[in-house]
Write a structure and sequence with these properties.
The chain has about 775 residues and is of the alpha/beta class.
């Protein structure tokens, strides 16, 4: 991409916002190197990677990247044998700990069932260096000091140092506390000069203590003397300190060698951590912008839903839709300078650059963006004082460069094309430039305030006009992009609102040609038509959703009703079978008793009479009809079904009307307000439309005739409410509703009691009950209809 394009579209400001979300200098370096990619496969991979990072943040809220630093220079020094300092070794240890934590973090999320193939491929490259981390931590403290536990020799040497220091302090403290000390010492303290313990002695008593003079005060009146009594002890202390330094250097060299041995693994871990920091920074930035992953394509087509400028605060930015490459390849945004056109231009350009950089875009789900090999932008008023160029000349220099490079894989953005010169010549030049890039197949978005370009979209195929809406009442733009409506001048309306007299405005109107007035009136009507169309579409969409909800609810209730009916039939059949079985057992018992009596000769009953009696008992048992699928049986030749015939759907036991034949064996049937597909074998012919008057169970005649599943009586007067209840029950029965709800609220209970008294008297009510907790409780009565 051209650097100038990135600059005028403020791509660097997007990167500055992205930098706020990195956790280390590793991620900062990656962000600074970020540029849009032109490779389709690479962009797809980048978007998938960012999306996985966003998934992790959504699940966990953070990524453990604390303590990670850029240790690559330290590792490279270790490889060439240069000794590392304790703080440098400590940075390596904490970074290795961070890599281990990150590896465990990703693996745990995957183990819990979340698929993260890209992030997992990164962590698979990480090598656990716990042994190196442990060695460094056992030798180096949190403050960067080498610990006594680093080696036995170091522990011994430091014990010798502490012993020597203790003996020296004891001797010097006895000297400082002596009776003559207050006379000969400037101050009763022990201090250090040149790493040796000394006392401050007055100049005139220098010979009393002997020893070595290490320093003197600025006035020369005080000498810092190491008394002869502690010279040997100080020498012993210095020897021990030299040994300590040598042992520390040995330990640091040993640790440096350990780092050098694992240098390649350490560097690989650092590289992975840099990538992960960059990925999670992009994901955090997407979360901040409420951005989404765009669908990428290579077909030079883009469509943005409610796209927002990423640099404008979300509470004030206006979202707009935009589309290029489908029905039209060029958008010409016309109208006066109101501030919204340039923002729209930059929003489209930035969304493209962000998508090709692997960043999610500030737009709704479903947005789609293509890969452009080049994005060109001529935006802003730029005068080049060094080159003695005017604003117009500077723009033309940029446009010449664009025309030399733009092709069918380019996105070209022109702001105020042809501005800065004579309006007539500027408009002609703008049309010519637009034709040039249009003929090359480039995708173009241009803004202009020239009225001549309003006709451009009507005279070119694949070109469409657009404008930024302006509210004359508030004298400010709404920043809402209107596709298909050219911009119109609001000068007269604004002037009138600001108080300019009608006489002056009318005189101004007389100077405008009739053609211009016609165009302005046409644009005004277009704006009004578009607003009306959008409003009607929203209303239609709401009605559609309500109808779908009602359709699903009715289907659910019919299925529930049929299931309840089948359960009741099965229950009744089972009870009947049990009764019959009891009767048979009783009959057998009676027969056995009769036979027993005959054998005892207490009754003269013949065997054939017993058999006949048993047959009569069995015959008296009720015959239970099992539920079988009914078959359509027509007397004589089979009846040919036609659209409009009334049939009975055997599955539901309901009558309906045939609408159309959808296949050889299926028809679409209207049952009440439901339409469904039914097989011919599952229906029974009733009558033709000529033979009987069609009386549908329920007819939907628009919103005024629609019967809801609920009746809301809250706020109604008692008498009006009772009248509404009776009418609603009749309507619900005509619509064949099996169940309805009456909302009366809790209140004083008078309305609730009146509803239930009405239900008790109504012939069509099967039963009623209060609503469950999820249905409204005592504030709702649920009614089952016959």
């Amino acid at each position: 991409m051209l650097q100038r394009t990135l600059r005028v579209l403020e791509y660097d400001k997007v990167k500055e916002q992205l930098l706020e979300h990195v956790s280390s200098s590793l991620g900062r370096e990656k962000v600074k190197q970020l540029v849009p990619s032109k490779d389709y496969e690479e962009v797809i991979a980048l978007q998938d990677t960012t999306d996985e990072g966003a998934t992790v943040l959504r699940l966990k809220g953070h990524a453990p990247l604390g303590g990670v630093t850029d240790i690559r220079p330290n590792v490279k020094r270790a490889k060439i044998g240069s000794m590392l300092h304790p703080h440098e070794l400590l940075d390596i240890s904490t970074t290795m700990y961070g890599s281990r934590q990150m590896k465990r973090f990703i693996e745990e999320i995957v183990e819990n069932g979340q698929e993260l193939p890209i992030l997992l491929s990164y962590t698979d490259r990480m090598i656990s260096l716990y042994d190196l981390e442990k060695k460094i931590n056992s030798c180096i403290g949190d403050g960067g000091e080498v610990l006594d536990s680093a080696s036995d020799k170091l522990r011994t040497i430091r014990q010798q140092i502490r012993t020597a220091e203790s003996r020296i302090r004891e001797k010097l403290e006895s000297t400082v506390r002596s009776s003559s000390a207050s006379k000969m010492l400037s101050d009763a303290i022990i201090t250090i000069r040149n790493d040796r313990y000394v006392i401050p002695v007055k100049q005139e008593y220098r010979s009393v203590y002997g020893g070595i003079i290490h320093d003197q005060s600025a006035s020369g009146q005080t000498l810092f003397i190491e008394p002869q009594a502690v010279v040997d002890l100080n020498n012993t202390l210095q020897e021990a300190r030299v040994k300590e330094k040598q042992e520390i250097e040995r330990i640091l060299l040993m640790l440096t060698e350990e780092v050098a041995n694992d240098a390649d693994a350490v560097l690989e871990n650092v590289e992975v951590l840099a990538e992960l920091d960059f990925i999670f920074a992009k994901a955090a930035y997407a979360k901040r912008l409420k951005a989404t992953k765009p669908k990428m394509n290579n077909n030079r087509y883009m469509k943005l839903f409610k796209a927002r400028h990423p640099l404008i605060p979300q509470d004030v930015v206006v979202a707009n839709d935009a589309e290029l490459g489908g029905d039209f390849t060029t958008i010409v945004i016309t109208g006066p300078n109101t501030g919204g056109k340039t923002v729209t231009l930059k929003t489209i350009g930035l969304c493209v650059l962000m998508a090709q950089s692997g960043l999610q875009i500030p737009a709704l789900d479903g947005s789609e963006i293509c890969i452009f090999q080049n994005v060109f932008a001529d935006i802003g008023d730029e005068q080049s004082i060094e080159q003695s160029l005017s604003t117009f000349s500077s723009h033309m220099v940029n446009i010449v460069d664009i025309l030399e490079q733009a092709d069918f894989e380019s996105l070209v953005l022109f702001d105020e094309l042809g501005a800065g010169t004579d309006p007539q010549e500027g408009a002609a030049l703008a049309i010519s430039i637009l034709d040039e890039v249009y003929n090359r197949g480039a995708r173009v978005v241009a803004t202009t305030h020239y009225p001549e370009l309003k006709a451009y979209g009507y005279n070119r195929e694949k070109v469409i006009n657009a404008s930024v809406e302006f509210d004359v009442n508030t004298l400010s733009p709404t920043y809402r992009l209107l596709i298909g409506v050219p911009g119109r001048s609001n000068a007269f309306e604004i002037s009138k609102r600001l108080g300019l007299s009608d006489r002056v405005i009318d005189r101004a109107r007389s100077h405008i040609s009739t053609e211009s007035n016609k165009v302005e009136n046409m644009i005004a009507k277009l704006e009004e038509s578009q607003k009306n169309a959008e409003r009607e579409w929203k209303e239609a969409e709401e009605l559609r959703k309500e109808s779908e909800k009602l359709h699903k609810e009715l289907q659910r209730q019919i299925i529930e009703f049929n299931e309840q009916r089948d359960q009741m039939l099965l229950k009744a059949q089972k009870e009947a079978e049990e009764k019959v079985e009891e009767s048979k057992k009783e009959a057998e018992t009676i027969i056995r008793e009769l036979r027993h009596l005959r054998k005892e000769q207490l009754a003269n009953i013949k065997e054939h009479e017993l058999i006949e009696a048993k047959s009569r008992l069995e015959g008296a048992a009720p015959k239970l009809a099992t539920k079988e699928k009914k078959q359509v049986k027509l007397e004589g030749p089979k009846k040919t079904l036609r659209p409009g015939d009334e049939v009975k759907v055997l599955t539901f036991g309901q009558k309906g009307q045939l609408l159309e034949k959808v296949s050889d064996k299926e028809w679409q049937v209207q049952i009440g307000i439901l339409k469904m597909k039914v097989k011919e074998s599952d229906m029974e012919y009733v009558s033709s439309p000529k033979q009987v008057e069609k009386r549908p169970l329920a007819t939907v005649k628009g919103k005024d005739y629609h019967v809801n599943l609920e009746l809301d009586l809250r706020g109604e007067r008692y008498e009006d409410a009772m009248l509404r209840v009776e009418k609603y029950l009749d309507d619900a029965m005509l619509a064949s509703y099996p169940r309805i709800s009456i909302i009366h609220g809790k209140g004083t209970g008078a309305l609730r009691q009146g509803v239930q008294d009405t239900l008790k008297k109504h012939r069509g009510v099967k039963s009623f009950r209060y609503g469950d907790m999820g249905e409204g409780g005592l504030g709702v009565t649920v009614v089952e209809l016959k």
